[in-house]
């Protein structure tokens, strides 16, 4: 153990120093020997570490999403070179290089947090064994050994015997009850965090092996925490419970404000964003502008939720701009379900309304009357501009007017339903 502690001495000293500084602040409020002072010092250490790891967390999100988009291509490479593992690895590395992704980026927060975890473990183990470590001297060591969290000493474990627990001023029942509750809470928070990621923030349009791996980890991690948790001191359990709760809250914030494209969380987010933008006619924050900018830049590669968002803005006369803002009526492009753009202002061809039988008969009769009047006008004599060979005296004084021809189709003036408009061809006599 001394060898391992010496290996982590470069990190145990800073960790112990941070804990002592927080303890000096909380000790003035709760008392230097209380579990609240030492417990809150560990919680503050976790919060400080996680704040420093936020840039790595953002990088982890980007790497995870990049890996999700590469899953179809990776599957093709695996099927193409399934008999040649070396060529398969080369093509995988080439794909990572071309896309600018790194599989290890998704593990960066855990890898970066591991040294602090081991350092805290050795600090608390030194308190349990009664040996000073880092900047914790004899007086601080005695104060830490007196600290109890809900009746359990800070350095006690679930697997400790009754004699060791009594030496720390507690009972075995209190230690095991407190540690069991903390282990259950730690495992439950880990399970909920992973389940939230799988059910809300995964692209449901692409089924990849990566999703199956994440689903498996959803059950593996809580079991691992439960198994290893019985060997952790109470202070380390406080550390892991705090970091799990922080991760859960941090992930909830990311899912709510920056969801994965194609996921259920994105559908809910774009629905909220549509209501806000249509009401205020603008985007209110950098995050919203970044989301709108990313959607516009995709063009025809938008998913179903993104096309619905663009179409909703177009219907109310708003247009998403390439810089992430919205403007009024500069474009009327509407996308169909398959991503084909159409023009919203172009009137669509509509089918004529179906008329009743009475309306059709009335329209046909009116057309027949108009055709009859045109036929009468065509039958009237017109003045000839050429001279006639007969003498003027031979012409009768009054020219007999020809009777106006009857409308085609017999004596009936009204056209029956279903006949064509205009003059009708007379029916030929039937042969008997």
Would you write up a description of this structure?
The chain is mostly helical and 432 residues long. Helix content is 61%, strand content 4%. The strands form 3 sheets. Strands 1-2 form a two-stranded antiparallel sheet. Strands 3-4 form a two-stranded antiparallel sheet. A two-stranded antiparallel ribbon has the order 5-6. A hairpin with a 5-residue loop joins strand 5 (333-335) and strand 6. Helix 9 (172-200) runs parallel beside helix 11 (234-257). It is elongated and about 125 Å long. The N and C termini lie far apart (124 Å).
Quick rundown:
61% of the residues lie in helices and 4% in strands. It has 432 residues and is mainly alpha-helical.
Instruction: Kindly state the percentage of residues in helix.
Output: 55-70%
Shape: elongated
* Helical segment count: 15
Tell me the span between the first and last alpha carbons.
124 Å
- The proportion of residues in beta strands is under 5%
What is the ordering of alpha helices and beta strands? HHHHHHHEEHHHHHHHEEEEH
**How do the strands of the widest beta sheet line up side by side?**
1-2
How large, in whole angstroms, is the Cα Rg? 43 Å
Please describe the biggest sheet, giving its number of strands, its sense, and whether it closes into a barrel: 2 strands, antiparallel
Q: What's the layout of helices and strands?
A:
Elements: H1 2-7, H2 9-30, H3 35-52, H4 54-80, H5 85-99, H6 108-129, H7 138-146, E1 148-149, E2 152-153, H8 162-167, H9 172-200, H10 209-229, H11 234-257, H12 264-280, H13 286-298, H14 304-315, E3 318-320, E4 326-328, E5 333-335, E6 341-343, H15 357-379
Antiparallel strand pairs: 1-2, 3-4, 5-6
Helix pairs in contact: 2-3, 2-6, 3-11, 4-5, 9-10, 9-11, 12-14
